[in-house]
Each structure stands twice: as structure tokens, then as C-alpha cells.
Amino acid sequence: MDLDYSPFDMTSLEDDQAQLERILLELPPQYEIRGKMSQGGMGSIFKAQNRYTTAHVAIKLMHFESTRNTEAIKRFYFEAKAASLLKHSNICRLLDFGVTRSGWPYLVMDWIEGKALDQVIFDKGKLSAMEAILIFKQIAAALGHAHKNKIVHRDLKPENIMLAQDQDGHFEVQIVDFGVAKLIGNQHSTNDSNGLTKAGLTVGTPKYMSPEQISGGSLDNRSDLYSLGCVMYFCLTGNPPFLGRTVVETLKKHLYEPVPVFDPALEIPAELQSIIFKAMDKQANNRFLNADELILELDKLISPKSSVEQTNEMLAQILPDLIELTQRNKTLGKEGLVPAKKVPFVVWFILGFIVVYGISIFLQQLMETPDSSANKPQAIHQNKDNSFHFSY
After folding, report:
1. Which of 262, 250, 159, 184 minimizes the C-alpha distance to 211?
2. Which residues are tagged catalytic?
3. pTM to 2 decimals?
4. Is residue 338 assigned to a domain?
5. Is the C-alpha dihedral spanning 38, 164, 157, 126 positive or negative?
6. Taking the CB of the first residue and of the last residue of the chain, which one, N or C, has fewer CB atoms within 10 A?
7. Least-confidence region, from 68-72, 121-125, 172-176, 184-188
8. Would you say 55 and 31 are in contact if contact means Cβ atoms under 8 Å apart?
9. Are residues 304 and 355 in the same domain?
10. In a domain, 305, yes or no
């Protein structure tokens, strides 16, 4: 795979961000843009719908500033190459890759309906041991598939892990964003793998980076397993294992400090703690050899022993609640409150009542004020049949 080759004509790219609308119009005509959904370090994600199949897709466009950077374009190109090699149910599927007529590269991927793992933890606080084990198994399975295809993700973090429902209604975990991935054995896969940055781009996320990634050492699949250990710790505690006051302090903690022990109050099984500590060993040689080994250890914690299909079904049963947690909280939070759309009606009702009451008082006072005997009754008499008549 020769990634030194770049198919993009840099001279055709314009600086003015106002050109975004024109760029979107240059995308293949079958895609109708529905709106911008998110923005990452290298590009923005737009939701679109295929006009003919009605299927929703995600379209990733590079940032304007990134298009001026040859290294950034090669990374974007490599993301497409890497994703095209990966065919796994727990990895977001690449549908298309191309360049607009003005030279703007884009990716078309499956649209994932769900929530990122970091948002789930933000809403829920932390996962139970069983929820975490089932989720970790699918993450490890996806990483194992990538590693067997000689690809290291290099930026595994909760934000890049989606708890999702596909367009067929199946619930599963999916890994996204291979923008800083590295091809094992190819030092030119992202042009340069030495150090944390290249041409101003950060390779990896400090809270989840392996020691060898921080020090610029040689990377293999065990670096991703370290990051997975960090993600495990975060999911079970609600906090990353290492977090300093600065980025440099966080990186030093990964390099030199032992993994913080778990609070006994969390009641995390000792076996699960051991798995996380092994995945996060400072020395790569002391970690799991590969993702399959890690999965085997996780399987031992599920009783009775279940097949892959059974554990996937177990996960599918808990994911809907995790994904819908935010919406459910919003609904509960509104109970007992006047809905926003009903506030104007209530206000007008109160104002109308005040006005009617004021008019009735005014009319009563008017009737009691002497005016003209020709147009004002002087007394009310009750008839023997309990009916009333006016006398003038």
C-alpha cells in the first residue's frame, strides 16, 4: 500500500470557509445533506440520506485548515484505506470514498444511531461489571479483527466507541474513526509514527495513550490493548485512570505511575481488576499477547459459560436502556413542570381572567352609580312564583 501517493490537487482547494455549501453540492447527487452532526480533530460529520434507497449515511469532510496540510490529507486517505480493509460487525463500515471536482476528499460511512460510550458514562455515572464485560468483549473483537489485518487504531477512546442500533434494528458496539491508524510493519502508513505530533496533528489522546506511544516507540496491537484497559477503567469508575493538571502531567503518569487501585466500594470482581491491570502494564511484553487472549479471560467471568452469539444477545438486551438513558432522564425531568409550549396559554388565561374580572367590577360599579331613571332599573322585586322583575 503506497501511501506516499496523494490523489489530491492542493492548488484547487480554496481558503474561504464560505465555500462549504458549494463543496456539499459537489458531493454525489444521490446524497441529500440533512445537517452537520459533529466535528472532530480532522473533519466534520454530516448526516445525509440516499435519495434512492432512503438509507441514512454519514459523510466525513476534511476541515478547511486541514486541506492545506499534505500530512493531514495523507491521514485522511489512509483512514479510507484502513476502513476499506475492515469488514466486521463492530467496526463502522466504509461505503464510499472520493474527491469532489474541486479536490475535496470525503468518506461515506454507515450512519450509526446511538450514543458514544463517553456520553453513556456521563449520563449513567459508570457501568456495572456485567454491562462492562459484554461491551469490552465486542470492542476487543473489533480490535482483534483490525490487528489481524495489520492495523493499529492508535486512538481508542470512549468518544470513538459507539453503542448503536443499525438500520436493521440490531444493537451492537461499533468502533469509529481510524484517522490516525497505523499499518503494522509499514512505517510510512501515516508518513511518520515517531513522536506525539506531526505537522501540528496530535496522534492519539493523552488520557488513553500507551507508554510506548507517548515515548515514540514501536507500536503494535498491544498498544491498542493498553488503551482498551484505560477505557475499561473509565467505564467501571467514571474516571480515566490517569489525569493530570496538564497534558504533560497526564502523559508522565502513564509513563511512571502505577494504575490506581479500584475503590472497594465499587465491588468490581478481583478477576476483572486483574484483567485491566494486565492490559495496562507499562511493559508491552507483560500485557495480553492479542485481543483473543483478553476475550478468553473476559469469558471466564460470564457464568454460565456462553457462546459468542449468546453474549451478543445479552448485550443487545442491555444496550437499548443505555442508549435511551439521556432521553428518559429528559422526560422524567420535565414531569411536574409546565411544558414550554403551554406557558403562553397559561399566561393568556391568567391575563384574560384578570381582564374579565376587572370589567365585571367596572360594570357593577356602573350599575350602582345613579345616572338616568330612563335607562337604569331602581329595584328588583321577587314575585310570588320566585321569579324576578325590575321596577323603574
Report:
1. 250
2. 155
3. 0.71
4. no
5. positive
6. C
7. 184-188
8. no
9. no
10. yes
Q: How confident is the model at residue 69 (pLDDT cuts 50, 70, 90)?
A: low
How many folded domains does the chain comprise?
3
pLDDT at 9: 43
Number of continuous H segments (helices) and E segments (strands) in the chain: 12, 14
- Structure-derived torsion over alpha carbons of residues 296, 302, 306, 309, reported in degrees to the nearest 10: -80
Residues 152 and 284 in one domain: yes
**Residues 309-358: tens digit of each pLDDT:** 888 888 888 888 888 755 444 433 333 222 333 334 445 556 666 666 66
The answer on 281 and 168 residing in a single domain is yes
Location of C-alpha cell 466500594: 265
Kindly state whether residues 81 and 189 are assigned to the same domain.
no
What's the residue count for the chain? 392
Rounded to 10°, the helix 291-299/221-237 angle is: 30
DSSP character string of 188-210: TTTS--SSSEETTEE-S-GGG--
**Are 139 and 73 in the same domain?**
no
Does any domain span residue 87? yes
Q: Quick check: is 34 in a domain?
A: yes
Other CB atoms within a 10 A radius of the CB of residue 247 amount to 13
Instruction: For 243-260, write each residue's pLDDT tens digit.
Output: 999 999 999 999 999 999
Where does a domain end: 306, 333, 360?
Answer: 333
Torsion sign across C-alpha atoms 149, 145, 66, 191: negative
